[in-house]
Amino acid sequence: MTVDDKITFAEYFLDKIKYAKNREDFLPNLSAFLSETRSIADYILEDANVKFGLGITLEQKLYTDRFIETAKKQKNARALQFSSSYNREFDKILQDPIGELLLKKRNIKVHRTEEPIQANFARN
User: Fold this and answer.
1) Which of the two residues, 112 and 80, has the higher pLDDT score?
2) Terminus of the chain with fewer CB atoms < 10 Å: N or C?
3) Cα 51 from chain centre
4) Largest Cα–Cα distance in the chain?
């Protein structure tokens, strides 16, 4: 599966959310949308792991800290440059109120509890 596949899947579930007629159609598609959108960043990081030859195996958890630590050990300047850009872009998502809400709610829903996903956004 590729990053483009994950984006396509996220778009699919977003369309399902947009046209949901009831809660039973909305909730499972929202859950799937949240999982797909969050996994895009993970797939980007894995693609970079392969592209820059870091050798972090699939058995190892791939977090940005491990990516950076491995790149530093290997003195891989291109991987370190990528990680800086990656972190900046991810921080932009977290600075956006909708991005922050979706990531936080997704993590709670997937990893901790069945907390309802609700929010009100004022559009200017």
Assistant:
1) 80
2) C
3) 19
4) 53
